[in-house]
Write a structure and sequence with these properties.
5-stranded mixed β-sheet; about 35% helix
Length: about 240
């Protein structure tokens, strides 16, 4: 389902504007990155957000976006193979957390999972969502089969809602979703699952503003913004 479209313009009205399609899970850090970029460059960023699948479909149908920041690797790779997207790169590595709205439940994540003294565990569909696949890999690494407890969200946003509304006692969500949330959190060690890689592609070629923004996203200032929002830039070996 397509999320409400968000459009924001950073910088001065007279500046050249580039349009960036951004997966819904990355809108907040993208706003911060776009604002920091526009303070330093004579360009502005217009952000359009939605699910990666919907944005991918729009791009394939000719939507006038300059860049696409997906929540996964598959859709940018598909656009690249179709010669619609170019210069694909990993812009962020996501972080997985086990979260409960109960402030005492997830004091020790592996212990509460192993005990199984809860009703429902929410995870995103591992066939569609990279955070869901990471959740499955985490349970496998811990040697746990909790399929009898699981309730599956279509995406990471619905997975979060299951926990927030009490329909699940706890759930594997994106760390960025629960940085300021009430309750209890166990941040899953990255060695328990494959890296949650989020890729981007350029749709416009030969555009100086696009090239400048890509360089900024890969730079040190963006690195600190990503950390603040629960992501990180890829390292050698990721």
């Amino acid at each position: 389902m397509l999320a409400a479209v968000l459009m924001t313009v950073a910088g001065h009205a007279a500046a050249e504007v580039i349009t960036v399609a951004v997966a819904a899970n990355f809108v907040k850090p993208m706003r911060a990155i776009a604002d920091a970029f526009a303070e330093q460059q004579p360009y502005s960023i217009r952000i359009v957000s939605g699910s990666s699948g919907k944005l991918y479909a729009q791009i394939r149908n000719g939507a006038p976006y300059d860049l696409f920041f997906s929540a996964d690797q598959e859709k940018p790779a598909a656009l690249e193979s179709e010669e619609i997207g170019h210069a694909r790169f990993t812009y962020a590595i996501g972080s997985l957390s086990l979260w409960s709205s109960d402030p005492n439940l997830v004091a020790d994540g592996p212990a509460v999972l192993a005990a199984g003294n809860f009703d429902k565990l929410s995870i995103a569909n591992p066939k569609l969502a990279p955070y869901g696949l990471a959740a499955v890999q985490t349970l496998e690494s811990l040697g746990l089969d909790l399929s009898a407890h699981q309730v599956q969200g279509e995406n990471i946003a619905q997975t979060y809602q299951f926990v927030a509304t009490g329909n699940a006692a706890l759930g594997f969500v994106a760390t960025s979703q629960v940085l300021d949330a009430n309750g209890s959190v166990w941040r899953v060690p990255e060695n328990l699952h494959d890296p949650i890689r989020q890729d981007a592609v350029a749709i416009s070629l030969g555009n100086a503003a696009v090239e400048a923004f890509i360089a900024f996203v890969k730079g040190e200032e963006s690195r600190s913004i990503l950390t603040r929002f629960g992501y990180r830039q890829p390292c050698l070996g990721d």
